[in-house]
Design goal:
Elements: H1 3-8, H2 15-22, H3 24-27, E1 30-34, E2 38-44, E3 53-57, E4 62-69, E5 90-97, E6 108-112, E7 115-121
Antiparallel strand pairs: 1-2, 2-7, 3-4, 4-5, 6-7
Length: 138
């Protein structure tokens, strides 16, 4: 049972929220762990290829994972009859604000068996230096 359905009760959910909770592509479940060397994001994108996914970092240090699962096309005969459509299709977008120790220019991404792994290396933060201020006066 999803967190939303636990909070609101299954009967109070609108159909869209119910679909998002059941559709891994629309909700894009993503884990974020921090190791001593990096921040690692792991997203489940079942049935997707790396060509369908985009990983970006903007100037505000926001990691963005996006993509689209396209609708399966019928053959040209026009004789296909769909009896049930349950697999999720559509666009997805997840955004994560990177912490100050993230080294945005060293990010690497890989995808295997529908699992995207984005590794953001860490950099050592400079500690603010103390500056001694001379006190003027008598």
């Amino acid at each position: 049972m999803s967190l939303i359905s636990q909070l609101l009760g299954e009967e109070t959910l609108d159909p869209f929220l119910s679909m998002v909770n059941k559709c891994p592509v629309l909700s894009t479940p993503t884990d974020w762990k921090e190791t001593p060397q990096a921040h690692v994001f792991v997203a489940d994108l079942p049935g997707m290829k790396k060509e369908d996914v985009k990983v970006e970092v903007d100037e505000d240090r926001v990691l963005q994972i996006s993509g689209e699962r396209n609708v399966e096309k019928d053959d040209d005969s026009g004789k296909d009859i769909w009896h049930r459509v349950e697999r999720c299709r559509g666009k997805f977008l997840r955004r994560f604000s990177l912490p100050d120790d993230a080294k945005a220019d060293g990010i690497k991404a890989s995808m295997e068996n529908g699992v995207l792994t984005v590794t953001v290396p860490k950099q050592e933060l400079k500690k603010p230096e103390k500056k001694v201020i001379q006190i003027e006066g008598n």
